[in-house]
Each structure stands twice: as C-alpha cells, then as structure tokens.
Amino acid sequence: MTLVQTRSRSTSGNAVHRTVADAMGAAGPQVWNDMTVEVALSVMAAARTDHLVVCDEDDQCTDLVTRARLTSVRDSSGYTDRVRLRDISDDGGLFASPLTTVAEAEHAMRHRRLGILPVVDAHGNALGVLALSH
C-alpha cells in the first residue's frame, strides 16, 4: 500500500490547503479480493457504480477496481471465469490519507493516471474516494 504523504500545513480557508477528508465522496461498494471478475462486474451493475473498493480478509483496503479495468481483464485472451480480484491487483495501489491536501492527492493521481483514489485511515480501512477534478 502506497499512501500519499502530506506535509503539515496551515488549516486556513484557502482551497490549496483543503484536505482529502473535505473533498472525498462515499467509498461505495466494498468487496473482498476473492470475488471473481464476473461477480464484481455484476455487483457494479447492480450498484450502478463504475468502481469497487477491494478489501482483504481483514477488511483492509487493498485496491480499487474500475469497470474499465475489469472489462479489459475479462476481454483479454488469458481470461477464465476463475480470475479473482486478487489475481489482477496492482500490489502497489495508491491510497490517500484523509489529511493529505487535495492538491497533493490530485498531483499524485495525475502522475499515476488515476481517475479515482481510495482514502484510507491509518489502519487501512476505506473511508471514501477522491475523484480527480477536471
């Protein structure tokens, strides 16, 4: 897990100093990493969402998957219906602390070409997500 780091900053009303906690949305559906890609796509469809927060057996956030990523995996030549979310994990997912500034999180997201970023607490529990502003 790579946590976006933050430096201590003033908490003035300036938008540059807004934290991720001020800007994040609800985490949305959380699923376990042993779920198959097909079931995850079904959960997304039922929940009418484009992403799922993936957790391990200890309920710690390990990844975030998007509909586009799952569709790409499903459409690949090596795909079988036994592929699980843990099989496609990046194992180095980027996560934000709620204390990270929005500017720092957006910079990291642009650098890694991420449209959405999970926000986790110090124990790895998903608190919400930050969507990249355009």
UniProtKB/TrEMBL annotation:
Keywords: CBS domain. Residues 31-71, 95-132 form the CBS domain. The keyword Transmembrane does not apply. The keyword Mitochondrion does not apply. CDD domains: CBS_pair_SF (cd02205). InterPro entries: CBS_dom, CBS_dom_sf, Diverse_CBS-Domain. This is CBS domain-containing protein. It comes from Streptomyces pratens.
